[in-house]
Design a protein that fits this description.
Blueprint (H helix, E strand, L loop, with lengths): L10 H17 L3 H22 L6 H35 L9
Length: 102
């Protein structure tokens, strides 16, 4: 998978790459891979926060990378929402969840 980054990759680029990899894994229904990637996101977010205060960080480049990360996560959501709805319907059918109040 292409989400492995080198040590000299800017944190905002690594974050964007991992968000894209998460979207791709969810698109393929590779749930374990998606989980592994998702577990790395908090560390990448924290690394980006720390690095963003450095004067050498290009704000425009960082913003572009973070917008790409956001877009990838929004696209990933389109794969998660149907799975979530299906699971809720299944659990409701099994009488594990209360009926939807709507």
């Amino acid at each position: 998978m292409t989400y492995a980054t080198s040590g000299n990759t800017a944190p905002h680029h690594a974050l964007a790459e991992h968000c894209q990899a998460l979207r791709e894994a969810l698109e393929r229904n590779a749930w374990e891979e998606a989980e592994t990637i998702a577990k790395k996101l908090p560390l990448l977010i924290e690394a980006d926060r720390r690095a963003s205060s450095e004067p050498s960080v290009d704000a425009k480049e960082r913003r572009t990378a973070l917008l790409a990360a956001q877009e990838a996560l929004n696209e990933a959501r389109t794969h998660l929402d149907p799975a979530y709805q299906s699971l809720c319907k299944l659990l409701t059918a099994w009488n594990v969840l209360p009926p939807d109040p709507r």
